[in-house]
Design brief:
Blueprint: H1 3-33, H2 58-71, H3 86-108, H4 112-128, H5 139-160, H6 166-185, H7 194-211, H8 220-238, H9 253-261, H10 263-278, H11 291-298, H12 302-325, H13 332-367
Helix pairs in contact: 1-2, 1-7, 2-3, 2-7, 2-8, 3-4, 3-8, 4-5, 5-8, 5-10, 6-7, 6-8, 6-12, 9-13, 11-13
């Protein structure tokens, strides 16, 4: 490790600690002085697992640390690369729009169509900034899957924010995995995004103190919409580009690392979407029918639910690192095994979901 690398890691470590402390302080002050901003209750028709009204302002601290991270990128020593590039500007713009979209929703409970148009705009900003998924080699199809990924992930992260600490901890594990991918490739001095990821991770860790059960504060749509587009954009930059032949058409392995990184949001969204469609309900209507809720119905505490999902999310990272580093050779069997693992996790959650649902219904019958 060179002296420059040691210097960079020292600065990043210091910035991470400062980010955690700064996020803690911001949320502490918000909690002390803001009791109504972004609060959700039954009058707003917002389905919440928590029965208590709490301020939904945690996402503001994410965005503040995001801006601070961007502002100091130029202070990190690097051998080359400019302070800002087209892709970084696009990520900044799309993430800022996601934040404003969530803030408007927390404040005014915006119309779903307006929200969808805002999410679509985030995807378009990323596409024109050259941040998009290159899968098919045909731009129209690549743009389409990018739009689906961005909008889908923004809604998925929002839907996952249904219980204390879930979205915060899962997003933290995903960012941690991205940092590991960057370190594996050794492109530390020339990476404009490293400090940004560290800053957002620090903001999540600082917020987690107040968001862990029993939480004192929610991140709200302000946080989930920002995180959704930020994670979507970051994943397209760092983990959607693993392929043997650049310019080739549709390589299965390209889907594996994103699938494993986002296993919890994807499994939860698939579960809720499929089951609501089977009940002829809109997938976008809130409800207490997520995998988190049914794990509680099964008998787990909220902290145990959060710990279980964190463990599953983190368990995928070492395998992804080995694949990215080339320690595990990409083969058809590895691809099949990876997809099998994903669907095994999905099926296990369906079995637990059904058992939890049955126990909950029996409990409700006894109380009736």
């Amino acid at each position: 490790m060179t002296i420059d690398n040691i210097y960079v890691f020292s600065l990043l470590g210091l910035f991470f600690v400062v980010s955690v402390l700064f996020s803690f302080l911001i949320n502490y002050l918000f909690l002390r002085f803001s009791f109504n901003l972004g609060s959700r209750n039954k009058e707003l028709s917002q389905v919440r697992w928590s029965a208590n009204v709490k301020p939904s302002i945690g996402g503001i601290s994410f965005f503040i640390l995001f801006l601070v991270s961007i502002s100091i990128i130029g202070t990190i020593p690097r051998e080359s690369a400019s302070f800002l590039d087209k892709r970084l500007i696009g990520l900044m713009a799309a993430s800022s729009l996601g934040f404003l979209l969530g803030l408007a929703d927390d404040t005014y409970n915006t119309n779903p169509l307006v929200k969808f148009i805002g999410q679509l705009s985030c995807a378009f900003i990323l596409i024109i900034s050259d941040v998009y998924i290159k899968v098919f080699g045909i731009e129209a199809f690549d743009y389409l899957i990018t739009v689906i990924w961005v909008i889908g992930l923004m809604n998925s992260i929002n839907m996952l924010d249904n219980m204390d600490a879930i979205t915060t901890s899962i997003s933290s594990s995903i960012i941690l995995g991205m940092l590991c991918i960057i370190l594996i490739h050794g492109n530390v001095l020339n990476n404009n995004y490293l400090v940004m990821l560290v800053g957002v991770l620090g903001s999540l860790i600082g917020f987690l103190y107040f968001n862990w059960h029993p939480s004192k504060i929610f991140m709200g749509d302000t946080g989930s919409q920002f995180l959704g587009v930020f994670l979507a954009a970051s994943s397209m930059i760092f983990i959607w580009d693993y392929r043997d032949f650049p310019g080739s058409v549709f390589e299965i392995k390209q889907f594996i690392i994103p699938m494993l990184f986002f296993i919890i949001p994807l499994v939860d969204t698939m579960t809720v979407t499929i089951r609501r469609l089977m009940r002829k309900q809109s997938p976008f209507v809130g409800g207490k029918d997520h995998i988190t809720h049914h794990l509680v119905y099964l008998g787990l505490s909220e902290r145990q639910v959060a710990s279980t999902l964190i463990f599953i999310s983190l368990a995928s990272i070492p395998f992804c690192m080995l694949l990215a580093a080339g320690v595990i050779e990409w083969t058809m069997m590895v691809s099949i095994g990876s997809f099998a693992y994903f669907f095994i996790v999905f099926i296990v959650f369906q079995l637990l979901y059904n058992k939890g649902k049955r126990l909950h219904e029996e409990k409700m019958k006894k109380l009736a």
